[in-house]
Amino acid sequence: MTTIILMLAVVLLCGLLFAEKKESLKGILLTKPFLSGLFIATALMQPYAAGTYFYLILAGLVLCLVGDVCLAFFFNRKVFTAGLAFFLTGHIAYIVAFFVTSGVNAGTAVSLAAVTVISAYVFTRLRPHLGPMMGPVIAYIVIISIMVVGAASLAVRQDFSVQARALVMAGSILFYVSDLFVARHRFVKKGIFNRYAGLPMYYAAQFMLAFSVGMIP
Asked: Is residue 125 part of a domain?
């Protein structure tokens, strides 16, 4: 069943990228919600679909699905802002999942220093283009940065499998990078390259987090 879901996801992703290239809102809405629904289905199919980590990750996935639909209307500032709010809340769910599972440890301090430097640089590049969106974007950068720190805190826990830790860490990093392309498209320079690079990273990240619930009780 997992193989079928992943194959269907690839087909839908190709359809979504084609719709993005054509700037077809109808095509985006016919593919994106269903593609996002597949990472929720993936999480529901995992073995440990009952614990705190599962429910928090599931909540994050659902919130991100709603955010996905909102971001399809990127040309509308109010709807785009609502999408940011849903994603921000989804990231908070991921943050709680990671820190409840891992606690604060050495990985927290090291990753916090690294991510702070990177995110500060990202903000300096985006700042001239943000205008009235500066507040929401700052909040989003802070939250997604903390999410990566939470993932790093979990990734150094030796009591989880290497595969589980790799899924969480890689998924969080890909999520972070994919959002850079969303920001570039919205605020700096629109272009299909942003979609071609960002969307595969984003969906890979969400599927990785969905699969992680089957390895972390």
From this structure: yes
Tokens (6 digits) for 119: 């995110």
Show the domain range for 172: 2-212
Alpha-carbon dihedral sign for residues 193, 182, 125, 153: negative
- Burial degree of 1 (CB within 10 A; 0-12, 13-18, 19+): exposed
For 187-217, write each residue's pLDDT tens digit. 999 899 999 999 999 999 999 999 999 999 8
Is the Cα dihedral 56, 151, 184, 202 positive or negative? negative
- Cβ contact 36:8 at 8 Å: no
Band (pLDDT 50/70/90 cuts) for residue 78 is confident
pLDDT at res. 48: 74
In a domain, 13, yes or no: yes
> Does some domain include residue 217?
no
Sign of torsion, CA 118 120 123 125? negative
In tens, the pLDDT along 102-157 reads: 999 999 999 999 999 999 999 999 999 999 989 989 999 999 999 999 999 999 99
Question: What is the value of pTM for the model shown?
Answer: 0.94
Number of structural domains the chain divides into? 1
Identify the three-state secondary structure at position 48.
Answer: coil
Residue pair 13/204 in contact (Cβ under 8 Å)? The answer is no
